[in-house]
Design brief:
Radius of gyration: 26 Å
Largest sheet: 5 strands, mixed
Helix content: 10-25%
Number of helices: 5
CATH topology of the largest domain: Immunoglobulin-like
Oligomer: single chain
Shape: elongated
Structural class: mainly beta
Strand content: 35-45%
């Protein structure tokens, strides 16, 4: 049976190869300096000197932000907010997506680059921010980061829950009450707002890593007819000759408006 070891613990001594990149404190937290680079790290068991482990940490600059959106209306794990969730959100960075979904497929990642998202009224969505370095590698998000998404207008959107650093937000789209309007458009701006160094705010330029995305909230798609149940005559002679039988025009409202 394996149990996590509470830190700090005097049995373990941490060291880094390059202190200009960062240092490891007694509690096991690696704190980087304001410089990029790679450093080897080592931990040695003080009671068993020949028992040690080595690893590597890469410190990179944030370069690009990508936003991914998923419909989680029927996913209670994401949309329900419990007391234990609140405690966890205050103690560490929650990742609703990682706890609930398998790693994203290439199709999902490609859709994250879309300029706009079309959402349905009275549905719940998970907005997830992904940070990349200049080489296209995903950056691990830590508690000292702080993200922000602007223009999530509370007239049209209700925030259900969000994690500590606001890299993931669950929100509910509200019902469109104006009968003369089929869609609501929001021009959102997501950004990496700051990187904290201990109790101090960094001098990180919050305009450097940002992303604009248009969100369209629409009514559900509905097929429109003068009656719900339609009977058309079967014309076997016409169909035998390869021609169409009865023709009935169909049309729909709501959704993207493209049919």
């Amino acid at each position: 049976m394996h149990r996590p070891i509470a830190l700090p613990n005097s049995n373990y001594e941490w060291s880094v190869d390059d202190e200009s990149i960062g240092l490891i404190e007694e509690n096991g937290l690696f704190k980087s300096r304001v410089s990029k680079g790679t450093s080897d790290i080592t931990v040695v068991d003080q009671r068993m000197i020949n028992n040690s482990a080595e690893g590597q940490i890469n410190v990179v600059y944030p370069y690009r932000l990508v936003v991914r959106l998923r419909d989680v209306t029927d996913n209670l794990r994401v949309t329900e907010w419990t007391a234990s969730d609140a405690i966890q959100a205050n103690s560490q960075t929650e990742t609703f997506a990682a706890q609930t979904y398998e790693p994203a497929s290439q199709e999902e990642l490609d859709s994250a680059y879309a300029d706009k998202y079309i959402l349905i009224e009275e549905h719940e969505y998970l907005l997830e921010k992904i940070l990349y370095d200049a080489d296209g590698n995903v950056i691990t998000l830590t508690d000292n980061l702080q993200f922000e998404t602007l223009n999530l207008d509370d007239e049209f959107i209700e925030i259900v829950r969000e994690n500590k650093i606001k890299s993931e937000i669950v929100f509910r789209t509200k019902k469109i009450l104006d009968l003369d309007i089929d869609q609501k458009r929001l021009h959102t701006l997501s950004k990496l707002k700051q990187i904290r160094l201990g109790d101090e705010e960094s001098r990180f330029d919050e305009t450097r890593v940002s992303l604009e995305k248009e969100i369209i909230i629409t009514r559900p798609v509905k097929i429109m007819h003068i009656m719900d149940y339609i009977l058309l005559p079967f014309l076997p002679t016409i169909q035998k000759n390869g021609n169409s039988g009865e023709i009935w025009n169909t049309y729909a409202t709501g959704g993207s408006g493209i049919y």
